[in-house]
Specification:
single chain; mainly alpha; 3 helices; elongated
Length: about 110
């Protein structure tokens, strides 16, 4: 989190410095000064802040991998291991469907034809 704030503050500082430089050079149009400052600060940050940008991206990727890996994969593996253990013990989990082996409903009593 701190590296993100530091990188953002450095980018804003570069933009402010570039805007001041453009104003000192005599550009009077505000829109043109903003665009030139944006381009200059973008190029400067690409060169000057590359080390911090790489550190930030590494931290983000590590955080996402840790968060993604610890949730879904662990739950799926845990469920698969429990199912394997039950099958090895011969205790297959059965769902109560309300039907017998031949597919007839067990809730109904058979009707005799007379």
């Amino acid at each position: 989190m701190r590296s993100w704030l530091f990188y953002t503050a450095a980018r804003l500082g570069l933009f402010a410095g570039a805007f001041g430089l453009v104003q000192l050079l005599g550009v009077r149009s505000l829109w043109l000064a903003l665009i030139l400052a944006w381009v200059i600060s973008g190029l400067a940050s690409y060169v000057l802040l590359s080390k911090w940008r790489d550190q930030l991206s590494t931290q983000i990727v590590d955080h996402n991998e840790k968060r993604k890996g610890s949730r879904l994969v662990d739950r799926l593996d845990g469920g698969a291991y429990r199912e394997d253990d039950l099958q090895e013990e011969g205790q297959e989990p059965e769902a109560d469907t309300g039907s017998d082996a031949e597919g007839r409903s067990t809730d109904e009593t058979p009707v005799k034809d007379t």
